[in-house]
């Protein structure tokens, strides 16, 4: 198994009838596809980079999904054609009532919608992740640390410059959110059915301690205390990569991370209120 789940550039899916589909990896659609197929979400959507929707039409056909474009770049998909038609009609209506009705179709838990409505400021991202995960040891199913890209960054996802890897396709209101934990378990069962090998690798990748220090930079670590940094093809400053590769122990301060090796201080990474989150292998 390669050190990084991002080392593979594509993943091949097979159906019982012999049909196959090869997806680029990491595929930003995959968690939402699994959420719709598991009926956790009646509807999902994504923003496309400037391109024809043809590649996703192939995805939809393979997985039995209905799809349609809202405007030029908002792609909706569902198992239910009526839900899809309603979503497209609501998307074309710019009223506040229509926006609320469209959000209701997306299947997010009410507690999570309320939480995020109160913490919607993108500049408060660190505080959001802290409120969800600080001081907890959640299941890997709740590891949404890498689900950080917004509409303005979607091209970077397709270029492979931003890594996305998660099971639950939304940030929960807390690490112990009951509806989100139930949904993640259902999505995970679907992922295991769709591609058991990929699911096993995702579990291995996500059930790791995560050192989180801002919206774009984090490190997945191997072990506690850690023995090495994993997935260093992720976006990290080179100086931080070097320190984390050479170190074997961390000390988190208010404004810095101190990296040591063999009891000797190697250096520091400047950051505000770093987090160390211990994601577990347990499913619940």
Please specify the SSE layout and strand pairing.
Layout: E1 10-14, E2 20-24, H1 30-37, E3 44-47, H2 54-63, E4 66-70, E5 74-78, H3 81-92, H4 96-105, H5 110-118, H6 125-133, H7 154-158, H8 178-194, H9 196-206, E6 209-212, E7 218-222, E8 228-230, H10 238-246, E9 249-252, E10 256-261, E11 264-270, E12 275-278
Antiparallel strand pairs: 1-2, 3-5, 4-5, 6-7, 6-12, 7-8, 9-10, 10-11
Radius of gyration: 19 Å
Poorly predicted runs of 5 or more residues: none
Task: Give the mean pLDDT.
Answer: 83
Q: Profile the largest sheet.
A: 4 strands, antiparallel
Oligomer: single chain
Strand order of the largest sheet: 8-7-6-12
Distance between the first and last residues' Cα: 26 Å
Portion in beta strands: 15-25%
Q: What share of the residues lie within helices?
A: 25-40%
SSE topology string: EEHEHEEHHHHHHHEEEHEEEE
How many extended strands? 12
In total, the number of domains comes to 1
Brief overview, please?
It is built from ten helices and twelve strands. The protein is an alpha+beta fold and 284 residues long. A four-stranded antiparallel β-sheet has the order 8-7-6-12, covered by helices on one side. The protein has a three-stranded antiparallel β-sheet with strand order 3-5-4, with helices on both faces.
């Amino acid at each position: 198994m390669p050190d990084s789940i991002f080392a593979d550039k594509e993943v091949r899916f097979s159906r019982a009838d012999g049909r196959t589909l090869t997806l680029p990896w990491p595929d930003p659609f995959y968690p939402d596809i699994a959420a719709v197929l598991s009926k956790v979400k009646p509807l999902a959507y994504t923003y496309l980079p400037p391109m024809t929707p043809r590649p996703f039409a192939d995805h939809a056909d393979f997985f039995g999904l209905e799809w349609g474009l809202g405007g030029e770049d908002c792609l909706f998909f569902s198992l239910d054609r009526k839900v899809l038609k309603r979503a497209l009609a609501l998307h074309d209506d710019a009223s506040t009532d229509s926006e609320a009705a469209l959000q209701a179709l997306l299947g997010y838990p009410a507690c999570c919608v309320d939480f995020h409505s109160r913490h919607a400021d993108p500049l408060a991202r660190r505080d959001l992740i802290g409120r969800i995960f600080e001081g907890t040891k959640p299941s890997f199913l709740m590891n949404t640390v890498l689900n950080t890209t917004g509409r303005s960054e979607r091209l970077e996802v397709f270029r492979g410059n931003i890594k996305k890897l998660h099971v639950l396709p939304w940030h929960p209101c807390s690490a112990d959110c009951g509806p989100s934990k139930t949904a993640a378990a259902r999505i995970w069962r679907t992922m295991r059915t769709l591609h058991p090998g990929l699911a096993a690798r995702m579990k291995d990748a996500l059930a790791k301690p995560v050192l989180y220090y801002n919206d774009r930079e984090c490190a997945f670590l191997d072990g506690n205390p850690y023995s090495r940094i994993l997935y260093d093809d992720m976006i990290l400053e080179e100086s931080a990569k070097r320190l984390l590769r050479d170190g074997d122990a961390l000390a988190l301060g208010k404004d810095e991370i101190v990296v040591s090796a063999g009891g000797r201080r190697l250096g520091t990474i400047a950051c505000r209120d770093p987090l160390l989150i211990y994601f577990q292998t347990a499913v619940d």
